[in-house]
Amino acid sequence: MPKNIVVIPGDGIGKEITDAAVDVLKKIDKKYGIDLTFSFYDAGGTAYDKFGVPLPDDTLNAAKAADAVLFGAVGGDKWDNVEPQLRPERAILGLRKGLGLYANLRPVQTMDELIDYSPLRPDIVRGTDVLIVRELIGGIYFGDKCEREEYNGTIRAWDLENYSIPEVERIVELAMQAALKRKGSVTSVDKSNVLATSRLWRKTAAKVAEKYPEVKLDHMYVDNCAMQLAIKPTRFDVIVTGNLFGDILSDEAAVLGGSIGLMPSASIGEKTSLYEPIHGSAPDIAGKGIANPLGTILSAALLLRYSLDASAAADDIESAVKKTLSDGYRTADLFSAGSKKVDTAGMTEAVLANIK
Ligand SMILES: NC(=O)C1=CN([C@@H]2O[C@H](COP(=O)(O)OP(=O)(O)OC[C@H]3O[C@@H](n4cnc5c(N)ncnc54)[C@H](O)[C@@H]3O)[C@@H](O)[C@H]2O)C=CC1
Ligand SMILES: CC(C)CC(=O)C(=O)O
Ligand SMILES: [Mg+2]
């Protein structure tokens, strides 16, 4: 049975990086005979320009029916004045909600080959291996919001943060399960000294943890966590947190790996899963052919492992990426004297050459 991969390039560098990952998947498919088929759909500003909506029904329906979704990124200054409900970012939020993708897994590792690319000291980042488990379809990104209302003689806007016990339970369960296969430690990150949602989060996390005596749970405030990631990242194994905090902490943690362009993610939930790099559409470099495709290529590896049960193929891609980096190939975001500077196409060719 062919496996149908729905590819949604989106905006900005989205097409450049998903093209690269599809080339890698095609080569892997030839080698392992997985029988992949690819179908391409619009989303984001690109879809808004064509159809007047950021997430056409066709795209959402195709994603729901797919074996897995590979997503690039959406957004860009061009659509800054579009009304909020039609902004490009609604496409990725709508896909996450529509597919029930409540968990976003963002692994961050510092490879020895890239130790010098972090702005942090090598002795601080060496050995970093963190899995950020971010709740993805709740919290402030999905609560009621008001763009503008009169209040006390002025104008205000607001966004509502809410979490229910089942929403917290299922994400903490997933983090606990992940920790069992890793170093057995979970840090639950919140702001329970201030926020009601965080107090519910913390209590619920502690309750779930009672079922996992072999996992060590600790709680940390998000402001401290942001600092600990910069001064002692190796203290973390699994971090579980809400939608907003997870979004911010994972961009920060990307610095530990060398570049945001390297960071993959898997969004999983009720049925079809979606795979995307953690970065956005990078309008500042879009169309130049210089984006780092490795975050998307590594997301394709996660797709093979989690959605298609093709672990050997996933390992193969990850080894090819490691070898390419240890051979010294670098896109501009990681370039320094002495390494071999390549553009998106050059990096993709180098990875393909390492899949024998
Ligand atoms: N999942 C998604 O579709 C996401 C979309 N966005 C959207 O993307 C747009 C741009 O947002 P920004 O805040 O600029 O974040 P961004 O992640 O797109 O870019 C931040 C910085 O990282 C660089 N960068 C990102 N990916 C790179 C890659 N693969 N290779 C080399 N350099 C890379 C960019 O050039 C830029 O300097 C916005 O419209 C935002 O809403 C942002 C995050 C996620
Ligand atoms: C564009 C946002 C909705 C998402 C984001 O920044 C992310 O998922 O990392
Ligand atoms: Mg983000």
Q: What is the string of SSEs from the N terminus onward?
A: EHEHHEHEHEEEHEHEHEHEEHHEEH
Please name the CATH architecture of the largest domain. 3-Layer(aba) Sandwich
- What about the largest sheet? 10 strands, mixed
The separation of the N and C termini measures: 25 Å
Helix and strand composition category: alpha/beta
Whole-number total of structural domains = 2
The CATH superfamily name of the largest domain is Isopropylmalate Dehydrogenase
In round numbers, the mean pLDDT is: 97
Low-pLDDT parts are none
CATH class of the largest domain: Alpha Beta
Strand content: 15-25%
User: Which percent bin holds the helix content?
Assistant: 40-55%
Q: Give Rg in angstroms.
A: 20 Å
Number of DSSP helices? 12
The count of strands amounts to: 14
Note the main attributes of this structure:
Isopropylmalate Dehydrogenase, 10-stranded mixed sheet, globular, binds 1,4-dihydronicotinamide adenine dinucleotide, binds 2-OXO-4-methylpentanoic acid, binds magnesium ion, metal-binding, Isopropylmalate_DH, oxidoreductase
